[in-house]
Amino acid sequence: MGYTFFTISAYVFMRAFEVIFKGQEKKPWYNVCVRVIGVGVLYAGLSSMIWLYFNGIHLLGFDPK
After folding, report:
1. Can you tell me the distance from the alpha carbon of 7 to that of 13, in angstroms, rounded to the nearest whole number?
2. How far from 63 is each of 34, 43, 46, 50, 57, CA to CA, in Å?
C-alpha cells in the first residue's frame, strides 16, 4: 500500500501545483515544471502497478510496507 499512497500523494502534489500557479500557463518555467512533475507521477503510478502485479520489484527505491 505504500507505493499506492505515494502515487496518490504525488498526484495531489501535481494538482495542487497547477491550482496554486493558475494563470502562469504561458510562462516557460511553468510548462517545464508541470511536465517534470507529470513524468514523476507517471513513473510513480507505473511503479505502483508493477509492485502490485509483481510483488517484490521495488522501482521507487523503498520497501512499501
Report:
1. 10
2. 27, 16, 16, 14, 9
Say whether pTM exceeds 0.85: no
Lookup result for grid cell 502515487 = 7
Q: Cell 517545464, residue?
A: 32
Q: What is the pLDDT of residue 45?
A: 84
Tell me the chain's radius of gyration from C-alpha atoms: 14
What distance, in Å, lies between the first and last C-alpha atoms of the chain? 7
- Residues 21/30, Cβ–Cβ less than 8 Å: yes
